[in-house]
Amino acid sequence: MSELRYEAPDSLASAIKLLAAAGGPARILAGGTDVIVQMEMDMIEPELLLDIKHIPGLREIKAEKGGFRIGATVSGMEMMEHAALCATWPGLIDGVKLIGSIQVKGRATMAGNLCNASPGADSVPPLVTAGAMAHVVGPNGARDVPVEQIPIGPGKTSLAKGEIIESFFLPARPRNAGDAYLRFTPRTEMDIAVVGVAVNLTLDGAGVCTAARVAIGAVAPTVLIVKECADALIGTKVDAAAIDKMAAAAAAACRPIDDKRGTKEFRIKMARVLAKRVAQKALERARHVA
Amino acid sequence: MATILEKPGFNPDRQYKIVGTSPVKHDGFDKVTGRAKFAADAFLPGMLIGKVLRSPHPHAVLKSIDISKAVALPGVKAVITRDDFPEIKPGSGAGDMTRIAMAREKVYWEGHPVAAVAATSESIAKKALKLIDVQYELLPHVIDPVEAMKPDAPILHDYMRTKGAKGADAEKPTNVVERSVLAIGDVAAGFAEADFIVEHTYDTKPMHQGYIELQSCIANYSDDGQVDLWCCTQAPWVYRDRLTEILKIDSSKIRIQQSELGGGFGGKTTFYLEPLSIVLSRKAKCPVKMTLTRSEVLRATGPVSGTQSTIKMGCKKDGTIVAVDSNLIFQTGPYTGSAFTNAPQAMLTRYELKNVRTVSHEVVSNRPKVSSFRAPCVPQVVFGVEDCVSELARKVGMDEIDFRMKNAIVEGHKTIYGETFNRIGFVETLEAAKNCEHYKSPVPTGQGRGIACGFWFNRGGETTGTMNLAPDGTVNIILGTADVAGSRMSMSMMAAEEFGIPVDRVRSMLADTNSLGYNRVTAGSRTTFSSGMIVIDAARKIIAELCSRAAKIWNVPEEGVIFEDGHCRPASSNVGNFEPLSMKDIAAKTTYTMGAIAGHSEMNVTGAGPGFAVHIVDVEVDKETGLTSVKRYTIVEDAGKAISPLQVEGQYQGAAVQGIGWALNEEYIFGDDGRLQNPGFLDYRMPVASDVPMIDTVIVEVPNPKHPYGLRGVGEVPLTPAMGAIGNAIGNAIGIRPRSLPMTPAKVLALIEGGATSG
Fold first, then answer.
1. Residues A152 and A190 in one domain
2. Residue B365 confidence (pLDDT) above 60
């Protein structure tokens, strides 16, 4: 076991340099709600803890191109207190609200939730259905990556050595659009999703669904984007039959494991139930009835 | 003079000034501001940090332990193994205790200590653990007690033979520690009279107490062999005497100071780290502090037993229960000590029964050794009993409370275990439940309501305490019984009541083991009752002494002085026209009278009054997910006399919350490798605040005539019916009664989808 080194750089450039030069396992520390817990439980033994909270500009939510730019160190509570963000992307906020407790959300960040790469992360399915892009910076420059491409398996990301997520971009959204996220847990909070489903859909003036994205968490090594679910909704008025078809597609797409949090069979059942309920909620939001 | 035990002097007409109010607890400020000192807050100069190496295997022969590399690591001051503990015969009480603290011949569960290190920092200690080379010879393991009873199950202890077994069974190696039968009447004849008979099998899981404070201690072994030990415990004297047994150190040389306790619930009646820290301190010649992690608490400290029970119950058309026949299996972990005999004694005690037979088994297996937990081994069996009772009530067509009332016991009842009850309040508790707003209100649409009843003995036992009067007339009480739930405040209140002074003039503190005589463990709901007797007795001794001093000051006969409202007064104008003397007046003059005034009391307290509770629960079950939400919960329970009603409510409410956790989600999940997969609160799912509704309480007060104020213990009764009531509520919500804990969404959904299959 090597000694732990803690660094708190004041610029992104030096953060990248420190990270790229790390001789052993390194972890980025933002909220610390996963990293510190994992260290406490002896699950990880990082050589470098790189605290990015002191880098100016990372803790801001800004309007951009009709959408939002959310910095990497913005906490869950800060997102929940941002009225315009909540009004535009309520489904994403559904997910953020479900992370841990108020205290945990006071520190936890969406970037951390994504990079922890848990298939059950609550903010990830709605982030994915929103079509969010991660702005990644590293030793070889910057790139914009669809968020679903960041986690590649439990605890693993596609980020190269030295790379950091600087911010997320949430696009502008059409008027008659709505998103929602629901998860199933045995407890009401402080729990990990057995299944989580996000739906983001857009209606035209006649109430016909013109675009949809559906993502399911905790039923595969990474969050699943289920095109069959979207196809079941697009072109319909999102009536009961369409929703049933979409829910069946959700159940069919799941490939979960049996584990301490639920059996395969139970997870698939829950995916179907949640898909129905969450589609209904997204629809109500798109129709501005909720 | 008759003692308080013979003549408690209960007076139904007494008007209380302090008792029955709910003043702010004297230890409350420090607790909410963070100033209170729990065990892990202690610090000594030169202190080392100790860590434990634990077996990764559930069952293995401990072939060799090489500590040489760990010892050589800079910063490591001591490494201990089995070789540092005296050999004590396996299978004896002390033999089991020493082996639970540190494995000797074999390891018996994942998490069993095999070595411990003391080092100058935690990180060095952890590094050193990795340098210890342990060679294991793996053995097949068994986790489930029913599996452990099968003929081909791996045998944990070669020497074990079933106590109470007959014939060939008595000679065979086994995992069944004991088979015991408790019976009255003729069960077959009873069932022959029955018009309705129900029989079901129930499965419950071990439940961890879930105390927030992790076990922690500091041991300081001095050069002349004195041990100073700071720790969080419900049982300082028990710890001391057991440490004497396994470490062969005189009790007089072991001084244990209990810290504030951050929850115990029975789980801090047994030591884990204390013997290790003493032996490490002796070897390192420095104080050694050890603190468990949550993962260690879940992997290596005792939950309470899980059970499998089969219960058969019959009644007549008029609702009279005529026979109960039960077969119970209790898992105890690798060593005996589940307190399973509580179950046959308490599971049915509230009903008037002529024909009962209960066959109980205690079974060892490769999982953490169980410990105590609120009414150990009773709630998990009541889960089944109260299902049978409710089902019979429905078959007969009676209201569930009326059915229980029909079979309820009253004063003079002779229990199955031989005690004859004095005044008890079961009928009054049932009546209060029937009349409470919750029971009278209709069940909300889409919900199910369940009720269940429970009983706990409540205990007394050896108790010692001292009370000192200061020159300013204030009072200090020195207690030995650990304060798990606010008992110090209740003691101060009882003393203030006796003296007739404001409670702020009384303070209670907890002594170390050298400062008082023996005190039994704080358990069995005994403390407010037993230490309460000591406090009242000591206060009355002080009052008698105050009167004697006043008589001297006034130069009148002692019987000419009476004591009321904190003052000695002449008994009548015939005695003389003296101004009353306050406690302060007399205390300030002790130098000129006969010296300091103190009261002391030590007793083996008897006369604890049994307690009964009725729980009423409304639940809503999501029919598509199987998720249960507890919507409304009321506890109706006899407290005898609530000294501090707020604290009594807290006991009821806390028990309901623990019952909700046990009922709905909490369980240990073991992999095929015998390792615990959920050693943390994320996946060992205790309820969070938003999982529980406000728990309403109704405090019934049927006085216990054996206590001067009539109080009964309240710590354990309120857990006994919880899972039974919740199970009955779910059963009524979905039409099928779950019979396996925890009643998780997946299990409840399977019941809903499967129709008639049993849970």
1. no
2. yes
* Cβ pair B295:A41 closer than 8 A: yes
CB-CB neighbors (< 8 A) of B125 in chain A: none
Chain A nearest-CA distance from B294, in A, is 9
Question: What's the CA gap between A136 and A143, in Å, rounded?
Answer: 5
Nearest-by-Cβ selection for A187 from B669, B677, B687: B687
Domain span holding position A97: 61-170
The Cα B303–Cα A199 span in angstroms is 42
> Residue A237's CB: how many other CB atoms inside 10 A?
13
Hey, are the CB atoms on B746 and A189 less than 8 Å from each other? Answer: no
Strands (E), B355-444: 356-363
pLDDT in tens, B312-327: 999 999 999 999 999 9
What's the mean pLDDT when you consider all of chain B? Answer: 96
Tokens of B194: 């029955």
Both structure tokens of B28: 């409350």
From B751's Cα to the closest Cα of chain A, the distance in A is 13
Domain count, chain A: 3
Contact B745 A190 (CB under 8 A): no
Distance of CA A186 to the CA centre of its chain: 21
Query: Which residue segments constitute the domains of chain B, with CATH numbers given?
Result: 28-36+460-605 (3.30.365.10), 399-456+609-754 (3.30.365.10)
Both A150 and A197 in a single domain? no
**Residues in chain A with pLDDT values less than 70:** 1-2, 290
Cβ–Cβ contact A189 with B under 8 A: yes
CA distance A31 to A11: 18
Q: B370-429: per-residue pLDDT in tens?
A: 999 999 999 999 999 999 999 999 999 999 999 999 999 999 999 999 999 999 999 999
A273 touches chain B (CB under 8 A): yes
Say whether A270 and B130 touch across the interface (CB within 8 A).
no
Name residue, tokens 């841990």: A100
From A144, A170, A196, the end of a domain falls on A170
Interface contacts A/B by beta carbons within 8 Å: 50
Q: How many CB atoms neighbour CB B163 within 10 A?
A: 13
3-state secondary structure B140-160: CCCCCHHHHCCCCCCCCCCCC
B30-52 pLDDT per residue, tens: 999 999 999 999 999 999 999 99
* Inter-chain touch B691–A273, beta carbons under 8 Å: no
Nearest-by-Cβ selection for B665 from A186, A263, A270: A186
Residues of B in contact with A191 (CB under 8 A): 682, 685
Give me the residue from B293, B625, B682 closest to A273, CB to CB.
B625
Of B130, B678, B688, the CB nearest to A260: B678
Q: What is the CATH number of the domain that holds A153?
A: 3.30.465.10
Please give the DSSP secondary-structure letter assigned to residue A35: H
Q: What is the pTM of this model?
A: 0.97
CA A138 – CA A15 distance, rounded (Å): 9
Contacts of B627 in chain A (CB under 8 A): 184, 186
Q: In terms of domains, do A223 and A145 share one?
A: no
- In this structure, what CATH number is given to the domain that contains residue A246? 3.30.390.50
Chain B residues within 8 A of A184 when measuring between CB atoms: 625, 627, 745
Would the CB atoms of B688 and A261 count as touching at under 8 Å?
no
Q: Cβ separation of A260 and B691 shorter than 8 Å?
A: no
pLDDT in tens, A126-176: 999 999 999 999 999 999 999 999 999 999 999 999 999 999 999 999 989
B578: DSSP letter: P
Residue B291: other Cβ atoms inside 10 A: 18
A112 and A82 together in one domain: yes
Between vectors from CA B587 to CA B584 and to CA B591, what angle results, nearest 5°?
A: 145
Strands A61-64 and A67-71: antiparallel
Residues in chain A closer than 8 A to B691 (CB atoms)? 187-188
